[in-house]
Amino acid sequence: MTVKTTRKTFDPAAILKARDLIKLLSRSVPVQQALKILDDEVACDVIKIRNQVRNKERFVKRRQRILGPGGSTLKALELLTSTYILVQGNTVAAMGPYKGLKEVRKVINDCMANIHPIYHIKELMIKRELAKDPSLAEESWDRFLPNFKKRTLSKRRMPFKVTDKTKKVYTPFPPAPEKSKVDLQIESGEYFLSKEAKDRAQKEEIMERQRVKREEKMKEREKAFVAPEELEEAEKAKKEKKEKKEKKKRKRESEAAELEADADAADRKEKKKKKKSKSKEETSDGEA
């Protein structure tokens, strides 16, 4: 498609405006909206976003992030930048003043680089409020703007490196390669055997393994019928010591019981003697 001027053209910049109009129409911008590009204060910018992300699924997710839920993010960007934005296919078409187009391009490029548009929206809202204050016209706004740091939610755990600092003997030759299965067979002589001999050797090996397993199982079964071993010397000594302690304890208890019995017997004898003496005194008094 070509764009040419006619004899009636009085504005030389109209050819550029016509080119932009055709470009916007090809990007599915409505005609009534695209005709606004003919105004001198309105410019357009077509941002290519497909080549910024390689993965198709990731590209679709990030493109949807520009629109937001129900187109709310896109509407907020349009209001803050005073532009018209249309996301179509692999490009984003924007119309509006030059300052707004610059901000829109930055937001979209950052969105494709995995920075959410909501951060830029917050920043634009703060800038709009600061622009209303004439006292801050010549000051830096960095102290008012939010500083969003990138968070890494999951870091790949690096393997722990063990550095062996012991001095090793320098050898100019590389280490010998590991021997293959064929090399091991040649060393053992198995490689030169016939097929029948190999099969026979393999069967013998299987039979030997089975015999060893059978013997192990028999030993496990016979353990149940083995008589328990006698107590070891240490256990015997411990048992004897315990018995001696018990004997001494019983002896002490018996001696204490005997002493108590003797004391009781002595008390009973004294009581009998007292009774006899009292009875004798009573009889002597009666005779008198």
TrEMBL record:
For biological process, the GO terms are: rRNA processing
Give the PANTHER family listed for this entry: HIV-1 REV BINDING PROTEIN 2, 3, KRR1 SMALL SUBUNIT PROCESSOME COMPONENT HOMOLOG
Q: Please give the chief subcellular localization of this protein.
A: nucleus
Q: What is this protein called?
A: KRR1 small subunit processome component
From which domain of life does this come?
Answer: Eukaryota
The residue ranges of the K Homology domain are 45-113
For this UniProt record, the keywords arranged alphabetically read as follows: Nucleus, Ribonucleoprotein, Ribosome biogenesis, RNA-binding, rRNA processing
Record's function text: Required for 40S ribosome biogenesis. Involved in nucleolar processing of pre-18S ribosomal RNA and ribosome assembly. Essential for vegetative growth.
